């Protein structure tokens, strides 16, 4: 462990010195007073400094790499490919910033972006950054109610959206979802700007909805192309909502200064990228991977980033990823293991790889869910490049644990995302925050302070930040993941400790789904668990206990429950199975035994907890699961 060990130790000896040195790669309009300080008990990085994220992502590169592609949009859905140079993207972003400004958006205002994977989504994000406005991108697979919850929490001045998104075989009209969300929300944005796609035209509400193209034309005609507005390093760049333990998502805040420093550091040292290289994160701008590694990281570093609209399979086939790599000379691909499981299922022998020249590809990075050894080894064989599992969260914004190929490629241990990155001192502890010995599973925690780039707090909710992340293990950040460290310091992440599940790399709350199901008029109580799924990693299953006196067929209520989750949370929940059961297994104190139910569903060995109210209920659950094809595995 030469360069990795040397770098990690250097950070550990002098964290502030380490990050101050990393900060030299960023342009600042005013330097910081302190590298690390505290404000009401919360860490602040680079207080006193002023900077602009858009400047660092775009403008500063125009002089040196103005003609280089900054963004390549490749849509497997429409067959369209369009490249934007740094100069062109800067112009578009400045113009759209002018359009936002015409609607009164300025420093500190919030803008929600509800967009499919089109370049306008990236333009809107960077235009907000240019003005010092705070963007909040909402993933397109969420339904109106989820969007409404975010509108009420973020209170945006304006919403940017599109007429539609494209899913295989169907056009998803976004505008009716947006209209419905605005109807549901208590907060009303003063305007929306809608990008009309050729596949569907949205009806615009006069006086409230404005057409993207018209707004760009007006800004151009008025010569509006505002310069980058300096903001405090500690000012928020964005709020990204992520699933918590309830139906109310958490607004993860990202600041401007620390975020740039941390992401820029990772591009070279973790991902091994040089300016001019092509980086492809096959994710969605609605997730943190999209924020950090479709948009910000690659652009800070002067790379070319790929914005891919499509799926790993079926658009048109399991060779799409290889086509994109070959067409654009991708050096590193980052996606979720589930995408590779999907490809492997369609093309188990990786025959389609042979049709493409993948010689530019140097590394495949996987994250978002546990990287199962089978998938990793299959990808290694198929591509002949190192396959790097790495572990992080929406909250941290960049990898906590990785194999830092830019420093050195450490030996790969299957099932482990490898070793802690600078910024993260990882511990595995018991419930009393006592360190556990190597190879013993416990809660994974990070010693405070968190590094730059990590969430400084939750949006307008410092108390929620403290209680969710800092209260349980004093002096540590709670990751809510469980696992162990081996004798070489490699981490193994095994499961969540809360009711978050990971479905096709998408983070979802079973608690949130239970809240929706409980709203069904015939449901007395319910439980949702995540069960193992060969393709998506996990999928949710709901158990429903029906109110006494309801005599409708169970199958009817089950169907309504499935439809209700799709309507209230969205298709992304992949909620397809609801089962009516006579009762739920509980402890004598009334706690539902979700963990035991999951083990039964996954066909794992289970024992009846001593505190159970009535052990027979677990057999009933087993029978119910058997009826829908679960619980039979070894
Ligand atoms: N807008 C509207 N609907 C969406 C959507 C969007 N942006 N994204 C997904 N959906 C819909 C899908 O069409 C699907 O609908 P269906 O129930 O009618 O079939 C549903 O939400 C579930 O989506 P998903 O779980 O993604 O399943 P899928 O079958 O469409 O695709 C994979 C499965 C594995 C191919 C896909 O999830 C994938 O590529 N994932 C890995 C990459 C990734 O995005 N990772 C995120 C973090 S790195
Ligand atoms: P998200 O916030 O959507 O990025 O989801 C973060 C969660 O996904 C983590 O807390 C883990 O539970 C899981 N996760 C992400 N990456 C990995 C990984 N490489 N191995 C295991 N679990 C992971």
Describe this entry's structure for a reader.
This protein starts with a helix and ends in a 7-residue tail after the last helix. It is built from 18 helices and 31 strands. Helix content is 32%, strand content 24%. The strands form 10 sheets. A 7-stranded mixed sheet has the order 5-4-17-16-18-19-20, sandwiched between helices. The chain has a 5-stranded parallel sheet with strand order 7-6-8-11-12, with helices on both faces. A 4-stranded antiparallel sheet has the order 23-24-25-26. The longest helix has 17 residues, at 86-102. It has 2 domains: 2-310 and 390-473, Rossmann fold, CATH 3.40.50.12780; 504-627, GMP Synthetase, Chain A, domain 3, CATH 3.30.300.30. By secondary structure, the chain is an alpha/beta fold. Bound molecules: coenzyme A and adenosine monophosphate. Coenzyme A binds at residues 140-141, 165, 167, 172, 282-284, 287, 289, 311-312, 335-336, 338-339, 342, 368, 503-506, 536, 571-572, 574.
